[in-house]
Amino acid sequence: MSTFEITGGTTLKGELHPQGAKNEALQVLCATLLTSEKVRIHNIPNILDVNRLIELLASLGVSVTQEAKNTYCFEAKNINLEYLNSDEFAKKGSSLRGSIMIIGPLLARFGKAYIPKPGGDKIGRRRLDTHFIGFQKLGADFKYKQGDKFYRLEAPKLKGTYMLLDEASVTGTANIIMAAVLAEGTTTIYNAACEPYIQQLCKMLNSMGAKITGIGSNLLYVEGVKSLSGCEHRILPDMIEIGSFIGLAAMTKSEITIKNVAYKELGVIPDTFKKLGIKLEIIGDDIHIPKQENYTIENFMDGSILTIADAPWPGLTPDLLSIILVVATQAKGSVLIHQKMFESRLFFTDKLIDMGAQIILCDPHRATVIGLNQENRLRATKMVSPDIRAGVSLLIAALSADGISTIQNIDQIDRGYENIDLRLNAIGAKIRRIDN
Ligand SMILES: CC(=O)N[C@H]1[C@@H](OP(=O)(O)OP(=O)(O)OC[C@H]2O[C@@H](n3ccc(=O)[nH]c3=O)[C@H](O)[C@@H]2O)O[C@H](CO)[C@@H](O)[C@@H]1O
Ligand SMILES: C=C(OP(=O)(O)O)C(=O)O
C-alpha cells in the first residue's frame, strides 16, 4: 500500500480541471454491455475503480480500445458468460462497488447474471435489496445462500411492471433501468434516484434507442425495446471532486479556479459551501475561489446553529459530508454535520481531533464542529485513509496543517481521484508519493 507524505502550510494558486465523474463512469461503462455495437465514451477518469471495471469488462469479452487519454471505445460483441463462473471473476468483481451494475445489462441481454458481493467503501451496512427486489419484479429468479458470497439471477424473459423502490438507491436505480430497457412492455420506477449520474445514464441509453421518460425526476417510465445500438457519450465533471477542491481552497487559504464545472449540474453543492462562508465566483462555467483569510458559518434564519445533512438528490450528496466537515474545522462558528445515510463514515473525525480540531462526535451519524477560525492551525500527524472521502478530507487537513503528515492506504484515494498528488503539486502543494 502506498503512502502520501504531505508538507502542510503552503498556499496553493492556480487552475484545476475536474476529472470525469467516477460514479457516472461506473454506470455508463456497465451500459456498454447492452449492445453488440460500438460505444465510445469520453472523459473517463483514470482512477483505480474505473480501471478495475474496464479490466473486468475486457475479461468478460468486451473489446476495449483506448483512443485517447480519457476516451475509450467498447464493443460487447462476444461475451463469454462462462467467465462469470471463474475464480478470477469472483476476485475482480468483489474489488469495487460499481461491478454490481453489470447485473442489469447481463440479465437483460443474456438472461443470466452472477456477481460476487461487491466491494467499495466500508462505511456501514450497504444493502442491495433494492437491486434484487427490482429484478425479481421484472421476473428474474434470484438465488443467494447466506454465507455464499455470490448472487445469482436468471430470467429467460424480463417483463415491464410498476415498482416503488424501498429506497432511492443510486446503483439500484441504474441497475433496474438497464434491465428494463430491454424488457417486454413498460416499467414504471417510482422513488427512483435522480442524481446527474442517473440522468446521464438515461440520456446515453436513449441515444442508443431506449425509450426512457421522466429523466431528472423520481418517476421514470421505461418502454422496453428489442435491441439497442451503439452511441457516443461524454461523462460530466465529477461534482464530488469539484466540492473537494472548493474545500481545499478554503482550508489552505488558496486562490483556485476550477475549470468547466458544468455548474448547472451541481445542485445544492455550491450553496452548501457558501453557507460555511466560502466565497465562490462563477465565471462562465468556472468556479473561482478567491483567497480568504477567514470564513464564517451562517446560522439558520432563526439564529439557531446550522445543520448540514445528506439527502437523496436533489438533496446534498453524502459523498461530500466528510469534506464539508473538515472545512468547518477552520471556519468561524459551529455546525452540526448529520450523515443520515451511512453509519460508519464519521469515525475518521478521531484523526482530526488528534490534529487539534474541535469536534464532538455525538453518535455515529452526527458530529458537531466548533471552528478554529484559522487561529490555531491543525497539527501534522500520521494516519490511515479509511475510505475514499475521509482520505481526501485528511489530505486537505494535512495540506493545511503545520508540519509533515503521512497518509497510508492511499489506494482508497486513488480509487476515485486521478493523480491527485501530481495535480495538486502543479499548483503549489507538497505531496510525495511513497510506493511501499
Ligand atoms: C458507485 C456509486 O455510485 N456509489 C455511490 C452510490 O452508492 P450506492 O448506490 O451503493 O448507495 P445507495 O444509494 O444504494 O445507498 C447508500 C446508503 O444510503 C442509504 N439510503 C439510500 C437512499 C435513501 O433514500 N435513504 C437512505 O438512507 C442506503 O440504505 C445506503 O446505506 O450512492 C451513494 C449514495 O449517494 C454514494 O455514497 C456512493 O458514492
Ligand atoms: C462511497 C463511495 O464510493 P463507492 O460507492 O464506490 O464505495 C464514494 O464515492 O464516496
In this entry the ligands are:
uridine-diphosphate-N-acetylglucosamine, phosphoenolpyruvate
Strand content: 15-25%
Q: Indicate the mean pLDDT.
A: 96
What count of domains describes the coordinates?
2
Q: Shape, please?
A: globular
What's the CATH architecture name of the largest domain?
Alpha-beta prism
Contiguous helical run count: 14
Q: Using the coordinates shown, work out and report the CATH topology of the largest domain.
A: UDP-n-acetylglucosamine1-carboxyvinyl-transferase, Chain
Distance between the termini: 6 Å
Description:
The protein has 436 residues and is α+β, with helices and mostly antiparallel strands. The chain folds into two domains: 3-19 and 237-434, UDP-n-acetylglucosamine1-carboxyvinyl-transferase, Chain, CATH 3.65.10.10; 22-234, Alpha-beta prism (UDP-n-acetylglucosamine1-carboxyvinyl-transferase, Chain). It contains 14 helices and 23 strands. The strands form six sheets. Strands 21-22-1-23 form a four-stranded mixed β-sheet. A four-stranded mixed β-sheet has the order 2-14-16-15, covered by helices on one side. A four-stranded mixed β-sheet has the order 4-5-3-13, with helices on one face. Helix 5 (129-137) packs parallel to helix 6. The mean pLDDT is 96. One of its GO terms (biological process) is peptidoglycan biosynthetic process. It comes from Ancylomarina salipaludis.
